[in-house]
Design goal:
This protein has 377 residues and is an alpha+beta fold. The chain folds into 2 domains: 67 residues, no CATH class; 210 residues, Distorted Sandwich (Beta-galactosidase, Chain A, domain 5), CATH 2.70.98. The chain has 3 helices and 25 strands. It has a 9-stranded antiparallel sheet, with helices on one face. Strands 4, 5, 6, 7, 8, 13, 17 and 20 form an 8-stranded antiparallel sheet that branches. A two-stranded antiparallel sheet has the order 1-2. It is globular.
Length: 377
Amino acid sequence: MNRDFATSGGIEIPVAANVATSSAFSTIMFVTPSNARNLGFGRRMASSFSQRIILALLISLTLFTPFANAQQPAPGLELTRTIRTWEFLPVVGTRAALFGNETGRLEAWVYPLKIFREFHLTFHVGGRALPAESLARTLSVRPESATILYAGDSFRVRETLFVPIREPGAVILFDVETEQPLEIEAAFVPDFQLEWPAAIGGTFVEWDAKQNAFIFGEETRKFAALVGSPTAADARVAYQTNYSSSDENSLRLGATQKGKETKVLLVAASVASRTEAEKTYEHLGASYPDLLRESAEFYRGYLGKTVNLELPDNSLQQSYDWARISTIQGLVSNPYLGTGLVAGYRTSGTSQRPGFAWFFGRDSLWTIPARRWQSST
């Protein structure tokens, strides 16, 4: 046997899995001289041939990858980091939004109605009332929701802010895990008005024990909103007298004695009637798990159908994908003006003018909340 051409093995080069090739070509093997006298010549020849094949494969990858990627489902997006108390936090759908900061202090909108501002939580545990802002630890954001983790000595509460894609309302979920009895109190300042430059006039807020919710209304009984929970109790309504006053409304969500439990707070509104607002409120309470899944699927589908790039740097990849999400989340539906893109969102504070961006509707211009572009940092 001529030892110059004897061989004991070969080199295997795998082909990328997402390239459209048959299984017969999933691995290419090159036989190279082994234990031969003229090793230098054999290696140079094999190396040159291998380089040419690898170059051809790289060119094929470049040509075929975009077509293969178009058929791949987009991966889920999620970012988690430590709370930054000063950062703006928007959670939006096309018909409603929650705007605030990363400690959980919020205002609620169901376009074009502002519902409340200065929403905040207090945890009642061990005979103490603990402001939630002081216990905010981490923030996790996904296209469909944002979750704030609050942690104390003997408990953890995950507050998930969620606005369905097409519903005129919002849902706030509280996943409680505690070693001793704990109760969540939610308080807010009612601010029931149409977005600037429109106005409703005189408004009122009252507690409805049947709905376990605050009812927002006005003199013509056209505009209405509800804020409440199936487990709500011990409601306190804002009041004003000649010797005392309070501009806050609050409710408690029921005590969790020990272990794990989920509480829910619902926000719904209508520009047509209280009856319509009540139907939305009941729908959100009964269907929020399905609505949350539907929203997640909506964003995954959007990422899968729009231009997808595979970038070598993970941070750059996330920035690109979040930029695509920010684009679709700039779509706002106003029942009086139609649907259009906004320039951004921002909290309005004590005014009814949330930002200075312009909404380009079907018939005219309308100011809308200014939205900060999301980033991966």
